């Protein structure tokens, strides 16, 4: 390429990309329930819950609360978490209901879903990958954004 030519534009990172990165993180470093990260381990790459893994995919490091993210990473985190919630609503609905039988929250909480005692690491990883596929299916045409 000549110096006068413009370099090809990089494709934007999509929520699907970040969901796949979160799934890969869990495969490599382990899955956790109860908090974003397993604080017992003293490592830069601790086991994480689904939301914690999404945070790491967006920021490149552990983040104790999403408010600590830089504005661009925060926008990516919220969009990616929303894509994951949309997938969970469609395929793993888990709604909170009060004592009178009224739905408290109309969306599946990724935190409650991740922390279900019957949940497994493989289910979480599979759901993150499937949510990425679903996002791609809904937002791309012929492989293009």
Core attributes:
5 helices, 2 strands, 145 residues, two-stranded antiparallel ribbon, mainly alpha
SSE blueprint and pairings:
Layout: H1 15-29, H2 50-59, H3 71-91, E1 96-97, E2 103-105, H4 110-115, H5 121-139
Antiparallel strand pairs: 1-2
Helix pairs in contact: 1-2, 1-3, 1-5, 2-3, 3-5
Explain how this protein is built.
The protein is mostly helical. The chain has one domain (15-137). It is 49% helix and 3% strand. The chain has a two-stranded antiparallel ribbon. The longest helix has 21 residues, at 71-91. The model has no long low-confidence stretch (mean pLDDT 86). InterPro entries: DUF6197.
Beta-strand segment tally: 2
- Could you tell me the radius of gyration in angstroms? 17 Å
Describe the global form: globular
Number of domains: 1
Record the strand order, biggest sheet: 1-2
Low-confidence stretches: none
Helical content band? 40-55%
Structural class: mainly alpha
- Measured by DSSP, the beta-strand proportion falls in under 5%
Largest sheet: 2 strands, antiparallel
Number of helices: 5
The ordered H/E elements are HHHEEHH
Overall pLDDT score: 86
Taking the alpha carbons of the first and last residues, their distance comes to 25 Å
InterPro entries: DUF6197
Pfam family, one: DUF6197
Task: Summarize this structure briefly.
With 145 residues, this protein is mainly α. It is 49% helix and 3% strand. Pfam families: DUF6197 (PF19698).
